[in-house]
Amino acid sequence: MSEYYNRQEDVFMEKIVARKKTAKDYLKIVGLIVLGLILLYIVSLFGTFIGFLLPLILVGIGYALYMLITSTNIEFEYIVTNGDLDIDQIIARRKRKRIFSCKAKDIELMDKVGSDEWKAAERQTGRKLLDCSQTLDSQGNWFILSDYKGQKLKVVFAPDQRMLKSMKRFNPSKIKYTPHVD
User: In whole angstroms, what is the distance from residue 165 CA to residue 179 CA?
Assistant: First the structure.
């Protein structure tokens, strides 16, 4: 039996959301800079013993600091393809990792953060929170209750209206999106 395939009905959407730095991120950056300065001081004390290696060590410390500090730049890419949601984490625009994936039809519940369902989900134990939003308290955040790789998750993300509308088509009873009529 052949399957009918119509490209015009395929849906592909993507959105990139940059994570805002937290106080913890800034503290990490300051700590790394202080550690780098301490290492530079220690290396300079032993400069006479390791004279020919000194430039290599200094460049190595500088490069390591750069890589560690820029690794605090995190973005999330949401990809909706025919009802499938994939969320990738992008670190410093050089490393990409899939951190969540699900089919809309397999979602246990999807609703707006702050709703009664969200409050009930917060009281539940046994679900790991996966925050894929700009900040957890951002306007427009939604949450998903679903399983991924055998783990029960509560995923927070910030889809746009097109993504919500597309996903609702595949699981209208569990995705609590109601389109706004202006």
Answer: 7
